[in-house]
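Researcher: Go.
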Amino acid sequence: MVRLIGIVVVSIALASCMKNSTTAANDATPPSNSGSASTQESDWGQIEKLEGDAKALAKVDGCTASADCATGAIGRKACGSPRDFLVYCKKTTDVAALNAKLEEIVKAETAYNTKYQVVSTCELRVAPDVEAVGGSCRAK
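Model: Structure:
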């Protein structure tokens, strides 16, 4: 009986991942590459550049209270879960610019996943708890 319940839970989770992947694919537009022919490697390079831009926007210093620390989801796995999380201080980060950049990464990675038929695990990544230590935000 326990084994049957486990199989049902896994089946539901996989079906949910398939639905999220299909929905994301319908909204995807491939990343542009300034008119030159793109490759999987160059398209991933664009995503890495966007991620570097987001990390540059995210400031961890300047927060003394843990409530002033936050996380932002980075990217989109093929099943719809964020690929990673970024810790930042809300007091010193341009949160609107960071959120716009993170959304740009999601769109680019969703398009990448669709274009290259990427498959991934359907594990759900959960944002880490954050805290302020010595004036900086960090994951616990």
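Model: The longest strand covers residues 69-74.
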